[in-house]
Amino acid sequence: MSVIELLKEYVRWIDEYREFLYSFFMEVLFITKERENPINEQIRVNEMMVIGPNGEQLGVKSKQDALTLAKYAGFDLVLMSDSGNMPVCKIMDYNRFKYEKKKKAKDALKKQREAIVDECMVFGMPKDGDEKDPVVSAKIVYNEETMKQLYPDKKEEEYRDIIWEQVKEINQNLSTYKHIKEIIVTTEPLVKTTTQKVKRAEEMKKILAK
């Protein structure tokens, strides 16, 4: 098989891999670390309002008494709020609480991220015009209105840097030879057929013409 045929085969593989990359891109885009709630002995307050596993108010308790109640119930004592006059703790299954909290946050972020990137195309960009040495690249179409809402203090030329940081996170989870090394960001929709399939040949002509 010639080098050009290998390149064509590689581009076809990239096309099939595109949907996975897009989905993965959505999952990691703008993910932030959350502050975890102090639990059990990590709690630094001596007195607190305690809420039971079923939401019942157990009243104001000392830390030691609250820990005893939590241990008796087979759960953790979790600090929910330390603002106001009286800290609030709840007796609960902390692992389940974290799972549900992360799931809700992930679902909310996913909806937000899906509004940021409308579509993308992964392709092999000839390096210095040499088709024998392609560079894995991605053309990313972002939603300008959403970007302005999420980043009101950023200029349009800074959007690329924001997206590129997230692409680098994707690369950390891919084999080296699959790393996306170049990106093109735009608000112009990809050229498609009547069945909404990307016309890769036309898109490549547009990309190479620039």
Task: For this entry, give a set of tags.
alpha/beta, three-stranded mixed sheet, 6 helices, 210 residues, 24% strand
Q: What level of helicity do the residues show?
A: 40-55%
Q: Determine the structural class based on helices, strands and strand pairing.
A: alpha/beta
Strand composition percent:
15-25%
Q: Which blocks of ≥5 consecutive residues have pLDDT under 50?
A: 26-33
Question: How far is it from the N-terminal to the C-terminal residue, by CA?
Answer: 30 Å
How would you spell out the order of helices and strands?
Answer: HEEHEEHEEHHEH
What's the alpha carbon Rg, rounded to whole Å? Answer: 25 Å
Strand order, largest beta sheet: 2-1-4-3
Contiguous helical run count? 6
Mean pLDDT: 81
Largest β sheet strand count, sense and barrel closure: 4 strands, mixed
Shape: elongated
Number of strands: 7
Would you mind describing this structure in some detail?
- By secondary structure, the protein is α/β, with parallel strands linked by helices.
- 43% of the residues lie in helices and 24% in strands.
- The chain is built from 6 helices and 7 strands.
- The two termini are 30 Å apart.
